[in-house]
Request: fold
Amino acid sequence: MKIEIALMELLIRVFATVGKSMILSLQCRRLNYSLGLLYCVILVSCVPQKHSFTIAAAANTHYVMRELIDRYEEQGGVKAHLVVGSSGQLTAQIIQGAPYDLFFSADMRYPQVLSSNELTEGELTTYAKGYLVLWSMVVDSISEIKSLAGPLIEQIAIANPQTAPYGRAAQQALQYFNLLPDLEHKLVFGESISQTNQFILSEAADVGFTAKSVILSKGIQGKGYWMEVPTESYAAIEQAFVVLKTGHQPQASIDFVKFLRSDLGTSILRKYGYDTYTNDADRPIDNL
Reply:
């Protein structure tokens, strides 16, 4: 684990050293996703910090986090601003000093990188376990992952395995079924699950790997065809959050975490297909 964290830190630092301007420049080439992220970053710097706090969240949580924030604010919580990206990109931004209060990662390794850099308050906490699915707007049925090798599938979208944990899980699944060597020429990489979803929805890719939470979200549910990827084919996607020292609203962060761990918060997570965890130990409550 220490070796993995050291390698991850090296990757993040290489990414981070290109500077904030280079990060934004690269992101702006991805029109839909990047402009939204740039807008959020600008918004964070402009909103009075005493009246709001900022949550940085992995792209797989985009829809569930939006609902969690809405319900939290309905109960009188401090206004929360949401910044969405791949876990690796957000980690690089935090290392660069982005003023985020909370970071919800798609895995445990990126929070561990931040903790090892002394950028977190307290320990990381596992809040959910996610699941990988195959999703298509083109193929009228998906029965098994090995069908990806067929001639009807020309483009397969996955998130970048270097910065997106769900992309890493997709790569592991292809390796498990001995498909990766034969399918490498078909792979189209999104910089995050958000861009991967764009490839699938626009039919730029015939099929793609995404998070189960995406296909269960409002506005997406019922579109296309999907199947769960066998869980034995990839490492468990245990997702953790950390409170950040770069933030300015520690009490708001604590209050939001309490809401997330409440019965209402965990029920929302389950609605989006996540397994949830108890307050006392990192064990699934149930499998829905």
Remarks:
- Residues 31-46 form the longest helix (16 residues).
- The chain has two domains: 2-130+237-276, 132-233.
- The domain at 132-233 is CATH 3.40.190.10 (D-Maltodextrin-Binding Protein; domain 2).
